[in-house]
Design goal:
The protein is built from four helices and seven strands, in the order βαβαββαβββα. It is an alpha/beta fold.
Length: 180
């Protein structure tokens, strides 16, 4: 899949923003703002350390899109699909990958066809052929949070760094950062 098919902005720098997340309520609010701007065909990368809140953000995003059921982490299944009224959402977790392009060998390339939204945790482990994101969300612990090796409280402050690589990604970024 080419950058053009993802709506990438040729030869332009990505647009960026940072959103402070003091607790889970602010993480859910960020997810609601992102959900409002999602369109079929988008690819969103979710990066950050273990336990920083990638799956929590996905749970809130799916709830904002109308999903009322359980949201499981796809750490062991690699993919959790959700058929929603607006469009399907495919939640991937590539944490267990040990070789580039295992996602393609598993047949996941068909999900990046444009009919749904792909949310990808641990995209850096998928290799260089993973489609470029429309939006990358990098979560980390805020500087004033306790040491991540400690038992971090659920509501430890975090930051979401947003990078938009397409017009659709820019729309999401502006929606997410505009009301923070």
């Amino acid at each position: 899949m080419s950058d053009a098919s993802l709506g990438a902005l040729p030869d332009s720098a990505p647009e960026s923003a940072t959103v402070a997340l003091s607790d889970q309520a602010e993480t859910a609010a960020l997810a609601r703002r992102l959900a409002e701007s999602l369109v079929p065909g988008m690819v969103i990368w979710l990066s950050g350390a273990l336990g920083v809140g990638k799956t929590t953000l996905v749970r809130s995003l799916l709830a904002a899109l109308g999903h009322t059921g359980r949201v499981a982490s796809p750490t062991f299944t690699l993919l959790e699909p959700y058929e929603l009224s607006r469009f399907p959402v495919y939640h991937f977790d590539f944490y267990r990958f040990s070789a580039a392009n295992e996602w393609r060998d598993a047949g996941f390339d068909e999900y990046f066809s444009g009919s749904g939204v792909c949310l990808v945790e641990w995209p850096e482990l998928a290799g260089p052929d993973l489609p470029r994101p429309d939006l990358q969300v990098s979560l980390d612990f805020a500087a004033d949070a306790q040491d991540p090796r400690d038992d971090i409280a659920t509501d430890s402050p975090r930051r979401a760094g947003l990078l938009a690589f397409s017009e659709a990604g820019r729309q999401c970024l502006r929606a997410a950062a505009g009301a923070s």
